[in-house]
Design goal:
This protein is an alpha+beta fold. It has three domains: about 5-125, no CATH class; about 130-190; about 200-355, Heat Shock Protein 90 (2-Layer Sandwich), CATH 3.30.565.10. Helices cover about 40% and strands about 20% of the residues. The protein is built from eleven helices and 13 strands. It has helices at about 5-10, 30-35, 85-90, 100-130, 130-150, 160-165, 165-190, 205-220, 245-260, 305-310, 320-330, and strands spanning about 15, 20, 55, 60-65, 70-80, 95-100, 200-205, 225-230, 240, 265-275, 280-290, 335-340, 345-355. A hairpin with a 2-residue loop joins strand 1 (about 15) and strand 2. Helix 8 (about 205-220) packs parallel to helix 9 and helix 9 (about 245-260) runs antiparallel to helix 11 (about 320-330). The longest helix has about 30 residues, at about 100-130.
Length: about 350
């Protein structure tokens, strides 16, 4: 919930991002705003515990409220049961005396409003995605026309025609392939059961990542000079997978490019454990860490962490959710890890999953 909306509906004064604000019904407590030197209620804004109660150095009641990852502190209140505020101060601060149960009820109402807002936004997103089918069909037609143009170029094979007639054709073809792949993910978003459509087929995960690396190369170079490197054994065995597994390299590389630091390297490491028949895949990039309290939430539908919102405007929070659904259909699970020794907010991020060759 953003500041403007919160301020328009709150009954109580509050703090947000180190500043004090009045409510629509009650002015900010003058002791908090002008007379308190400690302003220790603001320390709550760095806390991650939802609905944490606190009595400040002046004896006032404060409450940390986290609404969809946005933090507000209801401050300068005097609960009816409060014995920390001197009687004389209570006399001149009567307007800020309130019932604790009323404050808790207000918090529940705010949470209910936010849930309904999110539900409405998600329903709108689903409707908008459904309308993408027409765009998807138009892209298919464009892709077909591009294939025809390239087939009419000089050269013995399609690959020769692409390579020998200018970089513009190569980039156009790769870009259309990438767009087509991304649009096909809409089917999974609308109908997750489509993950298991069709029979399983033999795939090689190294080749899938290699193909996606080629498609993403010109994008990653254009965006902050990011390079992509694959590290693997000489030979990686094939796996039996649904067609949907092809989206995993697309999602993870797209995610890594969006959130990588400039002039950094995205590393894809593929290892095979021949004793248990598992292939372990690690996608590593240098960028802002995912906070510990978000490392599972990032796989939820529509969830975008605070760092993700600040670092990139792209994305609506469905890629990693789709990746988790696809891998679950293959008896696997994707997880997020970070460099445990790094104390700065930026460092090595790792997404890990495995596939069975048995």
């Amino acid at each position: 919930m953003d500041l403007e909306l919160f301020q328009s509906i709150t009954k109580y004064p509050f703090a947000f991002e180190q500043k004090f604000y009045p409510s629509v019904e009650l002015a900010q407590n003058i002791t908090c705003e002008k007379k308190c030197k400690e302003k220790d209620c603001l320390h709550l804004l760095s806390d991650s515990r939802h609905c944490k109660e606190y009595i400040c150095s002046k004896g006032f009641d404060c409450l940390l409220l986290i609404v969809n990852n946005v933090k507000y502190v209801l401050n300068g209140l005097i609960y009816s049961s409060n014995t920390n505020v001197p009687k004389g101060r209570k006399e001149v601060r009567k307007s800020w005396i309130c019932n604790k149960d009323s404050v808790i009820l207000f918090v529940k109402k705010i949470e209910s409003i936010e849930k309904n807002i999110i539900k409405h936004e998600n329903e709108t997103t689903v409707k908008n995605f459904s309308s993408f089918h027409e765009f998807k069909n138009a892209t298919k037609l464009f892709f077909s026309c591009t294939n025809e143009i390239i087939n009419n170029l000089p050269g013995a094979t399609f690959e020769e025609k692409l390579k020998n007639n200018g970089k513009i054709y190569f980039d156009l073809y790769d870009s259309l392939q990438l767009i087509s792949s991304q649009l096909r993910m809409i089917d999974i978003f609308i109908n997750p059961e489509s993950i298991k459509f069709g029979d399983k087929k033999i795939i090689n995960i190294y080749k899938l990542f290699e193909k996606m690396k080629i498609l993403f190369t010109h994008i990653s170079n254009r965006k902050r000079e990011i390079s992509i490197k694959i590290i693997s054994e000489e030979w990686i065995d094939d796996c039996l997978c649904y067609d949907s597994i092809e989206f995993i390299p697309l999602i993870l590389l797209d995610n890594a490019i969006k959130y990588s630091a400039p002039d950094s390297v995205i590393e894809i490491k593929i290892e095979q454990n021949r004793s248990n028949g598992l292939i372990n895949i690690f996608v590593k990039n240098i960028g802002r860490f995912v906070p510990d309290n978000e490392k599972d939430k990032i796989f939820e539908k529509f969830y975008r962490g605070e760092n993700a919102k600040q670092y990139s405007k792209e994305g609506i929070g469905i890629g990693l959710w789709i990746a988790r659904q696809i891998l679950a259909a293959h008896n696997s699970k994707i997880s997020y890890h970070k460099d445990p020794h790094e104390t700065r907010p930026v460092g090595l991020n790792i997404f890990k999953f495995n596939l069975s060759t048995n």
